[in-house]
């Protein structure tokens, strides 16, 4: 009895063990994350209120591509940065026009990791990693454009062109363009065995992991592309074959020598400093033998995706007649899931598309011209070893008013028969163009377009991510031409539309949330209200 006796707890005392466990699981009531999630929940409710509108607060135009990253709009090849947070355009920085040799090829936004000690105070603020045409990797302050770090990658032996994440915000991959010999060299019989170069970095602090060659002597002659994602080296071939290799195992097995940025090195007779001009980075991962194959599949146009739980993959059978048909198979044994052949049988100019839901639920989003199918994987009844594809919910385009009769009667009573039917994505019918997921608000956004007379009109619909219920519809006031290239971003209380017109003319339309119960015709009317033009930093903005 004495052993089981517990001392009386003092008033207000806490169970420290339970507190630590709950905090480790993210349930600590005073944690900043809990407050942030509550705030986002409130913001979602405000956005979905009927009285909340989205107003086109300003517009600008450019002769060069426009990019958007986390509340920042980049123009003039990242030389100009504008905050999209304020209702009026606020230029964060404006750099002088750069020369062609300083042109930026690609960029990634780098954000501070939580819970880590970093070597420099500047590391705790957002920065932009950019890759220049002359093989320089620069880390810039996202707010001022100041150069924080500068790394020289390589000389003329390769041209680095692409930045991507292996692990988001942790491991970055820099890929070269495909090495091709000049026509004269090929006619002279000179052989080019190295197809691509990959340089891999750990970020914040920026540290060099290694550089490797993708060599046709190891991977074959028909390699067309290569990527690294989630620790997997993905190699694609001209005949539709996709092969997967363990990148970590490759780097451990074939790493000749590790190198640190800024340190002197003596490598193959060259003496220099790692990451400094003119030597750049050593190619210190030399693959001398074919690495063990993890998985391979054949798919039309190398289209291959992995996701779901348990792991599945999506392919299109490698024949042109199967274009638009998707197979969902188990990664474990390549077994086709029950109901795993998806074919919308669309009669449209643009094909339907499919991908694993980015919310990590394991679901699948299949988008056609007039419907969005959200699908889920579940166990087959009485057979736990097989999975089946089942519908979670469907979102339909609003085509109640569309008429596609093959026979019409004129006012005089004459019967007219149509010789053709409308396409599924005919501009006169509401058609889905973009489907995205806002992870912080847990909303599924779908952009639909309808051509009314000579003008196209678009609206962004916000749906409950769990059940697909329509919660909000946001009209875009500018005319939408389906022949132009468009990007639309929904980022919490902001909607951004970037449009590319012919002759490299770009426009950026910024919409912000307006909480005003009074009537605001400008938020919903497609008429052209009186606009004001203002010049800031040499750039014209339209209000």
From TrEMBL:
Chain segments annotated as transmembrane: 194-214, 226-245
Biological processes annotated in GO: protein ubiquitination
InterPro entries in alphabetical order: DCAF17
A GO cellular component annotation in the UniProt record: Cul4-RING E3 ubiquitin ligase complex
UniProt KW keywords: Membrane, Transmembrane, Transmembrane helix
Pfam families according to UniProt: DCAF17
Name recorded for this polypeptide: DCA17 factor
Organism: Heliornis fulica (sungrebe)
